[in-house]
Amino acid sequence: MAGRNMAYLRRHEVEKLLHLEKGELDRLLEEDEDFPEGSQDHHDLFNQALGKEPPVTWDGGSVYIWAARSSRFRERGAVLLDRSLDTRSVAPGKWLGFQPTSQGPAMDWETDLGVVRIVHTTRHGAACAMAEELAEDPGAQGVITVCALFGDIGFSGPALIAADTAQPSLEYETQWGLLTRLVGQPLPWWPRALRRSDVISQWLPGAPVTLAEVLPDEKETTLRQAATVRWPDDAAKTALVDMANAMRNQHIDSLASEIRIFAEHGGNPHGDPLLIAARHRTEGYPLPRIDDRDLLAAGWRTIASSQLFEAYEPMEIGMYYATDLLPYGPHTEVRTRGPAARRWGQQLTPCTPTAVHAVLADDAQDVTFYSDPATGIPAVRKGSSRDGSWVFLAPLRLPDQGAQLESVILEDTVWIQTTDGRIHPGPCTPGDHLWWGPGGGDRPTEAAWVISQLMDDTSTHVSLTDHWHHAPAGLTKLLNRTRRYGTELPRAALEHARTQQADDTP
Questions:
Q1: pLDDT tens digits for 433-459?
Q2: With CB atoms 3.0 to 4.6 Å apart as the test, which of 343, 431, 448, 464 could cross-link to 475 if both were Cys?
Q3: pLDDT grade for 141, boundaries at 50, 70 and 90
Q4: 143 with 110: CB under 8 angstroms?
Q5: Which of 77, 10, 65, 4 is closest to 39 using CA atoms?
Q6: Under a CB-based contact definition with an 8 Å cutoff, are residues 494 and 479 in contact?
Q7: How far apart are CA 325 and CA 309, in angstroms?
Q8: What letter does residue 41 receive in the DSSP assignment?
Q9: Of 387, 430, 386, 422, which is closest to residue 405 (Cα–Cα)?
């Protein structure tokens, strides 16, 4: 099953698991067609380097599950998959209390089988790690099985991954409904954002639903701290608080959606609804947002151009979450050795680094900082001018200098050469990119539509809305082929292609 911790067993380990005598495994493989198939696909690199033939191994979890479902080996198999549990009567269990553990907040439940610990986390491998820890602890208080959340919904409630302390490395899926029957009462469930010890520890059987606050994540905390800095204008603070509020609202909406989905679909279809143990506070939500996009854009411009140390982390967040408010296009990287890139580099002006420069540098050591006086975009050169790269944010538009598009150069990105002898990276909107060449089922309609707009007006604010519909078919076909590095397409070729249907373009 996807999501469980995988453990592969060699022949002697399978024999040990099932308590088989020598030769019994071969007979079992011959006689039982349901026994999991072995494979030579899982082998260590050391033996591979020595040229040794890899041994046959078995997925230990699959063997453990098979054993539980067999009549002969069920006592060697997964505890919670024993088929007799479906029919035999069980005495109601009882709640033993909250347990803070290394894998997350947990609850212990006494059952007919022994103590079952449910760790309220979706961390991969948590059930296995907790079971291993308990197996090595003499004072494990009789815990026989550890269950952890899988994050999805199973047949009878939230999906669970289990690991037995007798075989802690072998995980398997079990059912929420089975555990509910073993403990004799509905099991509590907490949404992801409220699976915290301070919330879960408040619960006890019969307790009312806990109302808990959703804690800010690291990004929200960074933005709110940055909003306390003395900025040159109030717009920066407004932009920071607005984004922090947006993140908090999104977290609240996601939490509410998760609760709604699990409440509707996470209960036992033949039993009780899912017991939602905690909900978020609703007072004061949603947090207020700013409708004035010009004000927010002005704030992000202030942050981007700031040389304050406190601007770096907010800018890093903004370049991911506020791309539509920044005066730049997408992140672009090109090699400095290209002729077009080399020419463009000569047009740039060295400058003192700003917050956006620092984000583009990304902790690189050998960097120099520039700005493009024509388009206003920031640029960082990593490495030398001969064997390095330019990292920049593409412009949203080219300068209005009365020049026309003279040619297009295909060199790491789309370069626009104008009749005044200058060269610029092709303008592009955030979230898009300009490319060419065979794209399988895709077509380079972004580049074709941008080029077409610039042929009419080099200083236009390019739009890529519905580019697949607007891009001239002939231009798209011209770009939809492999080109040598640095290919230059003169305006005449572009004009000709734009007037052609795709089938007619050479």
A1: 999 999 766 889 999 999 999 999 999
A2: 448
A3: confident
A4: no
A5: 10
A6: no
A7: 21
A8: S
A9: 422
